[in-house]
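Lecture notes, unit on protein representations.

Consider one protein chain, 348 amino acids long.
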Amino acid sequence: MLKLDGSQGEGGGQILRTGLALSMVTGRPLHIERIRAGRAKPGLMRQHLACVQAAVQVSGGQAEGAELGSQSLQFTPGAVRAGDYTFRIAGAGSCLLVLQTVLPALMLADGPSRIQLAGGTHNPMAPPFDFLQRAYAPLLARLGVGLELALERRGFYPAGGGLLHAQITPATQALTLFDLVERGAPVAAWAEALAPGLARSVATRELEELGRRLGWTLEAGQLRAPGVRQHEGPGNVLMATLEYAQVTEVFCQFGERGLSAETVARKLAEEVQAYERSTAATGPHLADQWMLPLALAVWRTGQEARYTASELTDHTRTNSAVINACLPVRVATEPGAGGSVLVRVSPA
């Protein structure tokens, strides 16, 4: 049995999600105590409960303690089944975190799967749709796994109501390992401001301030305000996409009541500049998200792989501890070149 303490490290929902994913792929039951003990409201909330329910459906498993507010869970997986699924979260809980819970199992399944997801798509506490589509899915493709994402309707916090579709195609042969230690040559860089249900001036001011700080211009096509629909908001996100030959990074900052457009832009500019000062391939969030699929590929192939990160967050360190506890691999870190961190994933 996999036994996890939900209070370890940053003490959030990632421990539960990674634990569920690794329980499904290994076929080992999971027992987790003190779920989300590090949060102001500990225990299972709606989006975490949705992750548990999705894992039960995909694996034909059973769950004890799957109730709102529960701080203890016993999950027993069955056989993972490829197929068509629909998962919904009431409110703005991130449906993309539900996808990431079942994705590891379905990317190793015996056939393709299609998933419809409803809920939050742009949430300050989770990777937005654009991050998964532009930064995460292309790396999975290099492993040999297909992840096609289509956004039908955005769902911002606090209203939610987003809708997206995902198609997961497992590798036809063995997963293809690769090292991701360099970005490669720069290809393109641009920013987008989305502000459905808000005054158009919000997006305009954010883009103007970001352009001033990063040297990006409207004339070069680097400052964009894509069309949005009123019923997708109210909400606001400012995103920067940096495309390189080997990797694409997406950074974002969310607007909120009492936070000026200029402050949102300044925070995003600081994130982009911190990444650009490093020589690492991945930024702090992609470094976290990439760890689990890479560990699964190392486990399946018995070979080592490496990548570089601009920094390791507490979230990332906690994720590595859970992976080390649940899979026969070893995630280790060491100082890398140019102020980066080298993440090495090896068979145990």
